[in-house]
Amino acid sequence: MKRLTLLRHAKSGWDDPVARDFDRPLNAKGKRAARAIGRHLREAGLAFDHAIASPATRVVETLEEMSGGLGRALRPAFDRKIYLASAETLLDVIHNAPETAETLLVAGHNPGLEDLVLLLVPDGAGQDREAVEDKFPTASLAEIRFDAMRWADVRAGAGTLSRFVRPRDLDPTLGPEAR
Questions:
Q1: For residue 5, is it left (φ>0), alpha (ψ between -120 and 50) or beta?
Q2: pLDDT at site 20
Q3: Are strands 103-108 and 141-146 parallel, antiparallel or unpaired?
Q4: Which of 15, 79, 80, 163 pairs with 22 at a CA distance of 20 to 30 A?
Q5: Interior CA angle at 53 toward 112 and 105, to 5°?
Q6: Residue 4's pLDDT band (boundaries 50, 70, 90)?
């Protein structure tokens, strides 16, 4: 069985004057949200055999802040293909993940991550899927399990969404209305 966790980068700062979207850093709320997600992962006892991430500044900073809450550093393989990737491109990245990894973390961007969850988990699969369909907010994570022996065997509609966690689920001050 393979377990895939998809993590959307935390809230970035639009007020920061950067030349490229790729270089946008996290804002203060995004840093708090990423740390909260890291603490959640630690408390749930979740770990990853392998991690792949977009090299965009906001993803790198999300993983750094998340590591603080997790209590250990994540050392992802950075892959430029993940930056603003479509669901199909992300699935291709997953298909090429190391077969020795039973648990895989992919950290990146929307709309690709949300679209990937909706592609991999069948329609009508429960409340969490409906919540993802409504919105996959910043710093949220979705865990999908597959009855597959190889990452190359992961297919559309074959996943079970076992966890969907938004920062506001952990701390109401991290919700969309809060600052």
A1: beta
A2: 87
A3: unpaired
A4: 163
A5: 85
A6: very high
